[in-house]
Amino acid sequence: MPEPVNHQVNAARKTFQTLYQISKLLNTNLDPTTLSICIRLCENGVNPHALATVVKELQREVKAMNDAQLESSKTNATK
């Protein structure tokens, strides 16, 4: 790989690692793949505030579904 391209790749990797650390500090519960998708969406013009709202809502829905499934399995186990 030519030196300038290698430098760009290393800089991009370091930037992403920093963003991921910030994400963890803020307890976003985003894995690296999801964070990468969110970054690309923002780079392509998606409103960051709207994206954050959607991500939070999806996380709430997943939690509610998991809680309901857990409750259902507890109920079935006691029968």
Please give the alpha-carbon distance between the first and last residues. 63 Å
The total strand number stands at 0
Helix content: over 70%
Average pLDDT figure: 93
How many DSSP H or I helices?
Answer: 3
Estimate what percentage of residues fall within beta strands. under 5%
Task: Label this structure with key terms.
Mitotic-spindle organizing protein 1-like isoform X2, 3 helices, 79 residues
Can you describe this structure?
It comes from Pogonomyrmex barbatus. Belongs to the MOZART1 family. InterPro entries: MZT1 (IPR022214). With about 80 residues, the protein is mainly α. The protein has one domain (about 5-75). The chain has helices at about 5-25, 30-45, 50-75. The protein starts with a helix and ends with a helix.
Summarize the structure.
With 79 residues, the chain is mostly helical. The protein has helices at 3-25, 32-43, 48-77. It is elongated and about 65 Å long.
Topology record:
Elements: H1 3-25, H2 32-43, H3 48-77
